[in-house]
Amino acid sequence: MFEQVAALIAEHERLQDELADPALHADAARAKRVNRRYAELSKIKAAHEQWQQLGDDLEAARELAREDEVFAEEVPEIEAQLADAQEKVRRLLIPRDPDDARDVILEIKGGEGGAESALFGADLLRMYLHYAESKGWKTEILERDESDLGGFKNVQVAIKANASDPAQGAWAHLKYEGGVHRVQRVPVTESQGRIHTSTTGVLVYPEVDEPEEIEINQNDLKIDVYRSSGPGGQSVNTTDSAVRITHVPSGIVVAMQNEKSQLQNREAAMRVLRARLLAKQQEEAAAEASVHRSSQIRTMDRSERIRTYNFPENRIADHRTGYKAYNLDQVMNGALDQVIESCIRADEESRLAELGQ
């Protein structure tokens, strides 16, 4: 398992020399990629050095224990530390998703349940915004379509971690959120106090780092402008500032009306279009290469029911990992770490099993 470490450490040294070259930083996109890879390899190098040091410490403790029983008491403790260090290196050697360091565009869409689904969409948005805040990430609402009761039929938010370490990236954590989220509670519109089950969909796309990364032929775009409207169809301005962009070859349609400026709405729509095109390209490549495993946590099937939020029982349950806890009130306030960590760990286990490690 550790044979590949030597090659990775050699790569780390090459990247260190490359980062010291001023010429690299003339290309911002390449500099970002090199920094991300360097940060990833730095963690492997540090973990491997710790594992080696503990190995040396254990050998020394065993040798001294032959002469002094006091040192024998240290052996079991060092053995446990060595096992933990080895496991850490093993997990760091799992090939990372190349998009882990990317920022994301997250979209919440109403599903079954009408007004209640839209209200839960607003609750999910609040949950993700609080989670991002707890991570020190930046958020930007790109588009929202409000319902009459204050929910969201559709809302899109850009979440930026700007992480150099892929393990700390927004995509590394939020890619598991795509799917159908089911809520069980008494809706505000329910006069009899009955519990209803509704669903809300979440889509997550890795955001394109540089516009040039996704080549878009302007002749492939159909762009319409129209007057934006608010809840209930009321006009909210008197100019044609809303923008709808159709990418004809793929059939992807993106509409934006959140900003008062047509230019700003167009720029936001292009950001979302690039992200969707990147996701589409990756999914097609993954399907062709058959690299998506049946056990993989992040799935291309966005109709998958991934999680249930049961308000009467204050219960959160992830159906992919078996995670269950009775702290839904805290989760809805952004305490998503343990839920997402269960997805990360399950994905790592399936990757380790595939690698035979």
Automatic annotation (TrEMBL):
<dbReference type="InterPro" id="IPR045853">
    <property type="entry name" value="Pep_chain_release_fac_I_sf"/>
</dbReference>
<dbReference type="Pfam" id="PF00472">
    <property type="entry name" value="RF-1"/>
</dbReference>
<protein>
    <recommendedName>
        <fullName>Peptide chain release factor 1</fullName>
    </recommendedName>
</protein>
<keyword id="KW-0963">Cytoplasm</keyword>
<dbReference type="Pfam" id="PF03462">
    <property type="entry name" value="PCRF"/>
</dbReference>
<dbReference type="InterPro" id="IPR000352">
    <property type="entry name" value="Pep_chain_release_fac_I"/>
</dbReference>
<dbReference type="InterPro" id="IPR050057">
    <property type="entry name" value="Prokaryotic/Mito_RF"/>
</dbReference>
<dbReference type="GO" id="GO:0005737">
    <property type="term" value="C:cytoplasm"/>
</dbReference>
<dbReference type="InterPro" id="IPR005139">
    <property type="entry name" value="PCRF"/>
</dbReference>
<comment type="similarity">
    <text>Belongs to the prokaryotic/mitochondrial release factor family.</text>
</comment>
<keyword id="KW-0488">Methylation</keyword>
<dbReference type="GO" id="GO:0016149">
    <property type="term" value="F:translation release factor activity, codon specific"/>
</dbReference>
<feature type="domain" description="Prokaryotic-type class I peptide chain release factors">
    <location>
        <begin position="227"/>
        <end position="243"/>
    </location>
</feature>
<feature type="modified residue" description="N5-methylglutamine">
    <location>
        <position position="234"/>
    </location>
</feature>
<dbReference type="InterPro" id="IPR004373">
    <property type="entry name" value="RF-1"/>
</dbReference>
<comment type="function">
    <text>Peptide chain release factor 1 directs the termination of translation in response to the peptide chain termination codons UAG and UAA.</text>
</comment>
<keyword id="KW-0648">Protein biosynthesis</keyword>
